[in-house]
Amino acid sequence: MNLFNIQDFFKLCGVILFFYLLKSLYDIIYCAYFGPLSIVPGPKLFPLTRLFISFKQISGQRWKWIQNVAVPTYGPMVRLGPNLVLISDKDAIKEIIAADFPKNFNYIKFRTEDRFDTLFSTIDKSFHKKRRRILSPAFSIKYVSSLEPLMILCVKDLIYKVDECIEKKTFSDGAVLNIVNLVQSCVLDIIGETNFGGKFNSIETLSHPLPGKVYQELRRRAMKSLFPLFKSFMKYDQYLLDLSNELIKNRRQAEKSRVDILQAILDVVKTEESDQITDFEIFDQILEFLIAGTDTVGLTASMAITLLAKNPDKLKLLQQELDNALGNCNDELPKHDQLKALPYLNAVINETMRLWPVTLDGGIGRSPEKDTIINGYMIPARTNLVLNYYHLHHDSKYWGKNVEEFVPERWLDLNNSPKDIFYPFSAGSRNCIGQNFALMEMRLIIASLLFQFDVKDILAQELDIVCYITPSFNNLKYDLVFSKRSFKSINNC
């Protein structure tokens, strides 16, 4: 009798499992081909599972398929997964930004630890509002301006380093230098000085491990999001946690407080309002600043100089503007007040961010909290809506037939520049908190380097960009030839 009952029990379990799998299969098929999103164009098999789009991300080249195949084939709204829709339409993107949809729940998968929210990864609007209010004073124009002397120290080290390499005559016309490594080392030292209490001395050796560690952390977070079942095997690098703990420990033991962003965070932690912020949460926030500060700013500054090297006529125009603005000053390096209003310098930066925005495949996306109509389609609640800023930046309807060319001049007449299609720092309540900081870094690095040095491209190099969360040069490498401008000296800017 007992044996009979056991057999019946397993039969019942088998029947339940069968119907559960049958129901799951029905739900998948219904969602894919009969649900509200079924009329959104897209590859036929992609609505069944997000694995198809996920596998395209492993190599960091998903963005090329999205921009060169998916959007041209299927149009301004493309379904790329069961609940994933890529949106490239200007008006639809504006509508979503205005509606202030929350970030998609997939942001949770990009956290160092799932249980800890950060300014970037939180999907909770109230948490984001509170955390942003806490951190905003450290990124105000006034506070960022107070950090300029620290930035200039690092830029000065960069100029000396390039001078030193040129003196060694590593190439007949100058020094062959990896622009990515060069700029990222400077950005990393700036982040160290202005955020954490001191340079990492990465310019000195051009071989600090931190840029590589940050690059690997980006890959880890991307893989953790794509394959959540394996996230327990994809732990964050202990080096990063140890570095953060050492920074926090040293700062708390310091006799004098210091004017930088870490101190601003620690001062806030002391307040009653935010005394629940743990050291690990501080580490997680610091890691986000490292990623944002080195990867995105490093890419834009490196790419701007690379594009100028590929377009010598544009480089000459920028250097003429710098000569006119800085030629009579007696300071060692230009100050930000001398640079922030220079039309062509800002045009170069804008054009670089247009061609190479910080998200090439739209990023993670936002989700409506209730069913909504977008572009004539009924979008169910919690659908992941990915905003394709890259497409807007590369749409010939708005930018003209030369849309793929590097043309800073298109920014010189702002009255005739396209409106509402340029999103270098995202938009809405979730726009980049550090944009003032980033623009100051980029202006100081680009202007200081190109005022002192000429740069030439080395032909037959492939400009290969990969994107896991943010874009970067593949293998963090692109070589340029640097030579000293004969009539310039670091002691006469």
Please give a handful of descriptors for the protein shown.
single chain; 493 residues; mainly alpha; Cytochrome p450; three-stranded mixed beta sheet; three-stranded antiparallel beta sheet; 19 helices; 10 strands; 51% helix; disordered C terminus; transmembrane; heme binding; transmembrane helix
What does it look like?
- By secondary structure, this protein is mostly helical.
- It has one domain (35-484): Cytochrome p450 (Orthogonal Bundle).
- The chain contains 19 helices and ten strands.
- The protein has a three-stranded mixed sheet with strand order 1-2-6. Strands 3-10-7 form a three-stranded antiparallel sheet. Strands 4-5 form a two-stranded antiparallel ribbon.
- A hairpin with a 2-residue loop joins strand 1 (77-81) and strand 2.
- Helix 7 runs parallel beside helix 19 (435-452) and helix 8 (179-195) runs antiparallel to helix 13 (279-310).
- The relative contact order is 0.15.
- Pfam families: p450 (PF00067).
- Its cofactor is heme.
- InterPro entries: Cyt_P450, Cyt_P450_CS, Cyt_P450_E_grp-I, Cyt_P450_sf, Cytochrome_P450_monoxygenase.
- Heme binds at residue 432.
Condensed summary:
The protein contains 19 helices and 10 strands.
